[in-house]
C-alpha cells in the first residue's frame, strides 16, 4: 500500500506595516490552508495582527526580523502595509542594523522604489523568497471596469487619460503613484505625503478658493510606477481614499486594473456608492519592450 504524506506547508511570513491589507493577506493565506507568522512593525501595524502568531518588533531591528521568520520556519515573505520613512535618529538599531547602516543610508538617498528594492534584495540575500501581496490574495486586485453603478463621463475619461500619461512619465523619477486631474488640468501630485494628504490638500485648495469650481469635478488617478517591483508598494485604495475624494469634491477614482490593491473592496464600493462617486479599474497599455 502506498502512503501519501500530507506535509504541512511552511508558514507564510508577513512583515506587516500599517493598514488593513496585511491582515487581509494573512486571512487569505489561512483560508488557503497555509499557516501564517507575522512580524509586526510596532507603531504601524494594527492590533488585529494579534489574531495570528506574531512578534512585535520596533523599526530598525532586521536581525530580530530575520531570526523571527527563520524560527517560525518561514521561507516565503510578504512585505506589505503603509508606512512613512522613519528618521534615522528615531530608529532603534540592533547589531544587524549597525552592520547595514551604511547601505541603508545610501538606499535612503532616493525615492521609495530605490529603498524598497534594497529591502527586497536584503531579504533575498538572507535566503528568503519575497512574494507580492497580490500573489497571496489576488482577490484584492482591482478589476477592470466600474465597481458600482456610477460611471465616468467623457470628461472624466479624458482626465483619467491625462493622469495615466503623467504618472507613466513621472514614475521614471520615482516620485509618486497618484495625481488629481480636473478639467484636463493637473492640480495635485502625490509626493512624500501620500494619497490621503494629497487629497486633503485638494480639499483645502477648494475651500480657500484657489480652485474655483462649481460642484464636483476631477478624478484621482492611481497607478504603479512603470519599473516598480510589483511585489512591494503596489498602489492601494480603500474607504479612506473614498472619504478623501468626497472631501476634495471629486467625481471619482480611477486605478490600474490588476495592479492596484483594494482594501475591503465591498466596504470601499459601498462608500463610493453612497457618496455618488465612481471607482473604476483601467487596463494600462503595456510599455515598449
From TrEMBL:
InterPro entries: LpxI (IPR053174), LpxI_C (IPR010415), LpxI_C_sf (IPR043167), LpxI_N (IPR041255). Gene3D superfamilies: 3.40.140.80, 3.40.50.20. Pfam families: LpxI_C, LpxI_N. Residues 143-279 form the LpxI C-terminal domain. Residues 12-140 form the LpxI N-terminal domain. PANTHER family: BLL4848 PROTEIN (PTHR39962), LPXI FAMILY PROTEIN (PTHR39962:SF1). This is UDP-2,3-diacylglucosamine pyrophosphatase.
Amino acid at each position: 500500500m502506498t502512503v501519501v504524506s500530507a506535509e504541512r506547508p511552511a508558514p507564510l511570513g508577513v512583515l506587516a506595516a500599517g493598514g488593513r491589507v496585511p491582515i487581509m493577506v494573512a486571512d487569505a493565506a489561512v483560508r488557503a490552508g497555509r499557516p501564517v507568522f507575522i512580524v509586526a512593525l510596532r507603531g504601524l501595524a494594527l492590533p488585529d495582527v494579534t489574531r495570528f502568531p506574531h512578534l512585535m518588533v520596533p523599526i530598525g531591528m532586521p536581525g530580530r526580523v530575520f531570526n523571527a521568520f527563520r524560527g517560525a520556519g518561514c521561507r516565503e515573505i510578504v512585505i506589505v502595509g503603509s508606512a512613512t520613512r522613519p528618521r534615522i535618529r528615531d530608529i532603534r538599531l540592533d547589531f544587524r542594523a549597525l552592520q547595514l547602516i551604511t547601505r541603508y543610508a545610501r538606499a535612503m538617498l532616493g525615492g521609495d522604489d530605490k529603498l524598497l528594492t534594497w529591502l527586497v534584495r536584503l531579504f533575498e540575500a538572507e535566503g528568503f523568497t519575497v512574494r507580492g501581496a497580490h500573489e497571496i490574495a489576488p482577490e484584492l486586485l482591482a478589476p477592470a471596469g466600474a465597481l458600482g453603478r456610477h460611471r465616468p463621463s467623457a470628461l472624466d475619461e479624458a482626465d483619467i487619460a491625462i493622469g495615466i500619461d503623467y504618472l507613466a512619465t513621472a514614475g521614471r523619477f520615482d516620485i509618486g503613484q497618484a495625481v488629481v486631474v480636473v478639467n484636463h488640468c493637473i492640480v495635485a501630485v502625490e509626493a512624500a505625503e501620500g494619497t490621503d494628504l494629497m487629497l486633503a490638500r485638494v480639499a483645502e485648495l477648494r475651500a480657500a478658493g484657489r480652485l474655483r469650481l462649481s460642484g464636483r469635478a476631477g478624478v484621482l488617478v492611481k497607478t504603479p510606477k512603470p519599473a516598480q517591483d510589483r511585489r512591494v508598494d503596489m498602489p492601494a485604495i480603500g474607504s479612506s481614499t473614498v472619504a478623501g475624494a468626497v472631501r476634495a469634491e471629486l467625481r471619482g477614482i480611477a486605478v490600474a486594473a490588476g495592479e492596484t490593491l483594494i482594501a475591503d473592496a465591498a466596504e470601499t464600493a459601498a462608500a463610493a456608492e453612497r457618496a455618488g462617486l465612481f471607482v473604476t479599474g483601467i487596463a494600462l497599455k503595456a510599455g515598449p519592450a
